[in-house]
Automatic annotation (TrEMBL):
Transmembrane segments: none annotated. The gene is Acot9. GO terms for molecular function: carboxylic ester hydrolase activity; fatty acyl-CoA hydrolase activity. This is ACOT9 thioesterase. One of its GO terms (cellular component) is mitochondrion. Its main location: mitochondrion. It comes from Campylorhamphus procurvoides.
Length: 401
């Protein structure tokens, strides 16, 4: 898949040649469509791809995918899904008689990845399938499925929805993509779901707690948590205990709970050329893998047992990460319910010259632990907003699965 992507874009595997190849892409500007109407429509089956990851038939590649629990590293699967999603979009937009594509197609959003299996086995072949399921003017939704060979049949493991955007050869401005024409009632339903997904994302973003106050019900939740942490057994003057006088400052942790501020784990990555994508930026799949691994470690530490990934949702790629950047990752448990752990990972780049920090991604992971976990408790208003945001993501995931 990655070799095909290099051929489509004209990228080189050599770091110095690669820079030159990117310069040569400027000449492809003349191949861009001025209007979407000038591009031939495509069918869903035109972009359909099947790819086999031969873990069973080629044991020599297992090591890269293996974790300490003798199952497949989910972070590697995230990398593969990201690469496949981009290739599917290039297949959709491929023009006859043009060996190199003038488009720079990049991941804008991981809408959702829902898993129906806890364990992915390291010694059985995996099949990925996918196609473009919805198209806007310059963006494409890609639906992908992953299956694993068991008892001679491929059984479902996960479903994924990514949103990709097309840009000009230098990855600077939006570029038009081929329209998509559904052919059957089933495809009409899939396309309509793509429209609904877009509207849902707009609604979710509009109601963001960074823009709007919590709902009345959410305010009650925050207030109940606050009241539950007040210390009503304080000492007055001369050591006398005064049960009637409650200070807003004196807080205590309820039983079987953990303060949210004590759930953080942090990490740092130096972004080397090895992790670059075909456009000379850090590969989005690499960022997802690193964020997932830190999120998993956070859930593991919090629940004191092995967590399993249930869902990934709403990963917005806000800013590209340049080669040589210092990438700072911060993971935090933001919501818990029974044996579920909702983890938020914040990713930012640090410029050592200007000393400026810029957010690149926010990742949301839902894990399930083997045992019930302590309740996470926010202390500040800001943490309470993280708690409510985590609860919103968790509720949305539970509806999906």
């Amino acid at each position: 898949v990655r070799n095909k992507l290099r051929d489509v874009v004209g990228a080189s595997t050599n770091w110095r040649d690669h820079v030159q190849a990117m310069q040569e892409r400027k000449a492809l500007h003349t191949l861009l469509a001025k209007r979407q109407e000038d591009l031939p429509p495509r069918r869903m089956k035109d972009s359909y791809l099947e790819v086999i990851l031969p873990l069973g038939s080629q044991p020599e590649i297992r090591e890269k995918y293996l974790n300490v629990h003798n199952s497949v590293r989910f972070g590697r699967i995230l990398e593969d899904l990201d690469s496949l999603g981009v290739l599917i979009c290039y297949t959709h937009t491929k023009q006859e008689m043009q060996p190199k594509s003038p488009l720079s197609i990049v991941t804008a959003l991981v809408d959702k990845i829902n898993l129906c299996k806890k364990i992915i086995y390291p010694d059985s072949d995996i099949k990925f399938t996918g196609n473009v399921s919805w198209v806007g003017k310059t963006s494409m939704e890609v639906t992908m499925h992953m299956l694993q060979l068991q008892d001679g049949e491929y059984s479902p493991v996960l479903d994924a929805t990514f949103v990709m955007v097309a840009r000009d050869p230098e990855n600077k401005r939006p570029a038009f993509v081929n329209p998509l024409v559904p052919e059957t009632p089933e495809e009409e339903a899939v396309f309509k779901q793509g429209e609904l997904n877009k509207l849902r994302r707009i609604d979710f973003n509009t109601a963001s707690l960074l823009k709007m106050a919590p709902t009345a019900e959410e305010k009650d939740i925050v207030h109940d948590i606050f009241l539950n942490t007040l210390d009503t057994r304080q000492e007055g003057e001369g050591g006398r205990r005064t049960d009637m006088t409650v200070s807003f400052r004196s807080r205590k942790l309820p039983p079987n709970s953990v303060w949210m501020e004590d759930t953080k784990l942090k990490g740092l990555q130096i972004c080397h050329p090895q992790e670059r994508n075909i456009f000379n930026r850090i590969f989005g799949g690499f960022l997802m893998r690193k964020a997932f691994e830190l999120g998993w470690a956070t859930a593991c530490s919090y629940g004191s047992s092995r967590p399993f990934i249930v869902s990934v949702d709403d990963i917005m790629f806000q800013k590209p990460v340049e080669i040589g950047s210092l990438l700072l990752l911060s993971a935090q448990v933001c919501y818990t319910e029974k044996n579920y752990i909702q983890v938020r990972v914040h990713s930012e780049v640090y410029d050592a010259n200007t000393r400026e920090h810029h957010t690149t991604n926010i990742f949301h992971f839902t894990f399930i632990s083997e045992n019930d976990v302590p309740r996470v408790v926010p202390k500040t208003y800001g943490e309470s907003m993280l708690y409510l945001d985590g609860k919103r993501h968790f509720t949305a995931v539970m509806k999906e699965i």
